[in-house]
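Hey team,

Filing this mostly as a record. A colleague (T.K.) asked me to run one chain through the structure pipeline before their review meeting, and I want the input and output archived in the tracker in case anyone asks later how it was produced. No errors, nothing strange. Just documentation.

Input sequence:
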Amino acid sequence: MIWETVRLALRSIRRNVLRSFLTLLGIVIGVAAVIAMITIGSGTTEKVKGDISKLGSNLLVVRAARPERGGLASFTPRQLEEKDLLGLRKGLTSAKAVSAASQSTVRVVYGAENIAASVTGTDIEFFTARDWNVSSGRIFTESEVRGGANVCLVGQTVRQQFFGAGDPEGIAIRVNRTSCKIIGVLESKGTSGFGQDQDNVVMMPLGSFQRRISGNRNIDTIYVAAQDGVATSDVQDSIEAILRDTRRIAPDADNNFEVRDMTQIADAMASATTTMTGMLGAVAAVSLLVGGIGIMNIMLVSVTERTREIGIRLAIGAHEKHILIQFLVEATVLSLLGGLIGIALGLSLAGLASLTLSIPFAPSIPIILIAVGFSALIGMVFGFFPALRGARLDPIDALRHE
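Output structure:
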């Protein structure tokens, strides 16, 4: 019975192909827009999380606080110092790495070529804190860090610029006015979420950087990596307590440093992206309502055109429920076809966007299933009134209809 009804519905749709296509166009556009928006949004969220994770897992970043521009500072600005680093290394029992780093953009020269690169002075624990390994060569030794040796590691962008695919290990380059020997090449980190090339970097021991590049003993950043299974919020509280003590901040005074939890930042950015995706999906879903109204209109026209057919069926013994089911199935099949075409179109658009925007292609199976179910529901809801109208036709009046 039901398969026969579906067959009749498909035959009716094929009988007016152009009209049927224009009817389901609203459903196609609505479903395609929803699927594309949500898939692109999910991919964007994954990209944000991936970019943040490139900085390191369970990472907290400590920097000196800066007063707001144009406003009065509620604290005395003060740079991070070595005693702050030593205090954190001694007091933090739940951290697997505590590293100091200072950074500056300078000109790096090799032969006749040069490039503006980010030069970072740091120590051995930096590579653990930032989850950053070398693809070839080695990292600094303790003696090189303590002695401020003229050695360095280069990122993939610097290597490509100067040496192509060659091995630069053992070759000396000039960083600003200082010559340093390359001892390793860093693994690629790619572009950060802020569009910065993280591979355009040269790393050298912190002492060497402070003497030859920055000219002071200041520390720009302290990276703290929490141990696995330890909540970063607990580590953050410990960091603040230790630094308030080492920097001798009065109990009623504000911190002259700031601690950023990269996990919280990643969650906040992902939440914002998800919210925006939901809003765009809701706006796109409005076209589904328009598509439903289009289905109702065309089904009303169909009932009017087929009044005599309905009268003949009622006269030879068909019940009202048979007429009702026939038109409901026809509206549902029409809407489902629109939904399936919309899903294919939406996934295609999302795939194209993922290639263009360099974001992951992240289709959601539950969302696709919901789209199929919702398109069928649209057909049933908006097809019910025309189907009911056709089922309640008087057989005699229907047979007289021309």
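Quick notes for T.K.: The first strand starts at residue 59 and ends at 64. The chain has a mean pLDDT of 79.
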